[in-house]
Each structure stands twice: as C-alpha cells, then as structure tokens.
Amino acid sequence: MVFTQEERRNSTPLIFKIIEEKKINLPKVLEEYNLHFKSFIFLTGENNFKNNIKQQIVCQPAQYFVVKEATHDQADEIIKKIGNQVTTSHLIVAVGGGTVNDVAKMVALKTGCEFISCPTTLSNDGLVSSNCTLKNGDSHFSSTQAKSPLGIIVNLNFIKTCPDKYIVAGIGDLVSNVSSLHDWKLAVKVGKEKRDDVIFHINSLATERILYYDYSLIKNKKEIDFKNSRFLYSLTESLVTSGLCMSFFGSSRPCSGSEHNLAHSMSKLHPESNFIHGFQVAFFTLITERLAGNDISHLEKLYNLVGLPSKFSYFGLNLNHLFEIIKDSPKVRNRYTILQDKSSILNDKKLLKDLIADLV
Ligand SMILES: [Zn+2]
Known about the structure:
Blueprint: E1 15-19, E2 24-25, H1 26-32, E3 39-44, H2 51-56, E4 57-58, E5 62-66, H3 72-82, E6 90-96, H4 98-111, E7 114-119, E8 131-135, E9 141-145, E10 151-155, H5 156-159, H6 164-175, H7 177-189, H8 197-211, E11 219-220, E12 223-224, H9 229-249, H10 258-269, H11 277-291, H12 297-306, H13 319-328, H14 338-341, H15 343-346, H16 349-356
C-alpha cells in the first residue's frame, strides 16, 4: 500500500524561523508574511508568565493564560476563560515546552484560531505535528489529532536558558526514530500500514543528522556544550523535520513505534518514575533494536557521550518491572511493531532475559 496525492495531508506551517535575538518581534514577522490579527492570546507555563513574556516577545494587544497541565480539562478551561469573544482574528501564541504546545494545539482546534509556537525547550519532536498528547480525566496520556501550527519561531536565546537535560531529551526523541522507522517498515511488509518513501527518507535523514553528529566539535574539555548555537540549529531543524513527517503522514507513525509503546506502558504502570519522555524512548530503542537483532553499539556510544540512559536501572526499576512493561506494551495501541513480530521471544522469559540482561 502506498499513499495517494490526495491522502497526503497538507499541514506544513507557513512560518519557520530559527533566530538568536533578544526578543521575538512577532508583528514584524507576521507583516513579512502579510498576516494580520486583531489581538493575541498567549498561552504559557507558570515560569514564563506575563512579565517574562513581555520581555521576550514584542506583541500588543494581548491576553495571557497559564497552562498548568497537559489535560483536555485544561484546554477546555482556557477556552471557557477566553469566552465568546474569540474569533479567527485572534492569534494564539504558545510560549513554553511540550505541555503548553500540546494544550495550544487543542485550544486552536476547538476555537478555530491559528496558532504560533515559540518553544522554550527542544525536548521532543512534537513542535509542529498536528497530534498532541493530553490526559483525559484520570486516565493516562493518549495521542489525539489536534491542529498543527501556522508557524514556529525558535529563538535560540530562549532555548539556551533551559536546563541541558531538556536538550538531551530532544536528542533521545530523535534517535528513537531508528526504532519507529524500523517498526513502520515491518508493518508495511505485513500489509498493516501504508508506505510513504518520501516521508521515510526525510525522517531518516533528520534522525541521522543528530545520531551521527560530530559531538567532538562541541566538546569543551570533558563537557559537551549543548548550548552551542550551531548544534541547537541542527537539533531544531531535525526535530521540526521529524514533526513535519508526522503531519504529512497524518499520524505519529513515522516517529512513534514500539519504543513509544514501551515508554507509555512505563508511565502508566510506574507513574512515580516520571522521567522525561526523550530519556524513556531513547532507552527503549536499545531494547527494540536488540529484539530486532540489530547492532546497538553505536547507540550505546552516543548515549554514554551525551548522557542518555543505557541501563534500565537508571529509572530505579528492576528486571521484573521491565518484563511487566514489555508484556503490557503491545496493548497500548493498535499499531504493528517488533513487539508483535517477535512475540515468541517476548513470551519466553528465559529467552528474553538472555537477550536483554546486559541492558538492565
Ligand atoms: Zn516522542
């Protein structure tokens, strides 16, 4: 099965800027694209609220709302506060990390407004994709179709103020595409998924740019300088490209396979572990690649270099916990992956233990 031209979703953002300036001059950027909005609705995390934003982004008149959690209730609460006055002449501006961005995608979908994303971290590939991960009531997180942004403006000066671990997490989420792309190929082979060679190769290219990045170029003595502008530029381009692949495909399939299933299971079964998404999916990529019979030494070398976990004990859990997670993970969603392909190994505890013991 392949995609037809009509089936390919066309949700490319109009604006994509990577800048390194003191402030984002939003009216100037919009003017450049001949876009005009009556007023602006800012969504942001508590740390970035109002006064901070005013110093970071030139923009008036504006209303400001704080996003506290990635839930459907939070999106509905904001829509209620905005009230009936909202029209398509308002522009939603999301300033923050994944939580703010995910809620903004849902608010934009439900209000019909356009939105612009101004990220303050590079911790995952969800910056431009149309899907968002929100919690519904007390249940666990799930990925839902929402709205992709009209534009994305990444000010590297903002990114440079976030802790290094949120940049390392971005590396982890990108590298996990090694596993998701492999799963996608498998699913196509057994007739359970559509093929799209263009998206596949673009995503592969974005992944390899960071997987095989020459980190010695940004090494200061023993430390890696994650705030190096050239590196952040490459990471931004790669994460945005990966996100675009999901938008083009119409689901998270190109960037989310068995390694994401395992991470979702871990968050569900051990909510107390609460580790950053990019760290989880990077680790589980080692497991799924091992299951696939692929050499993982290049991944382990990279993880040691940048500080991504290469042992499960990093998460404070043991082999039995890992067995439970692996057992639960195929049920996370109906998506064919290596977890179904190698179910005979997964059902044989001894075989499985022999295969992954060195990763625990
Ligand atoms: Zn991810």
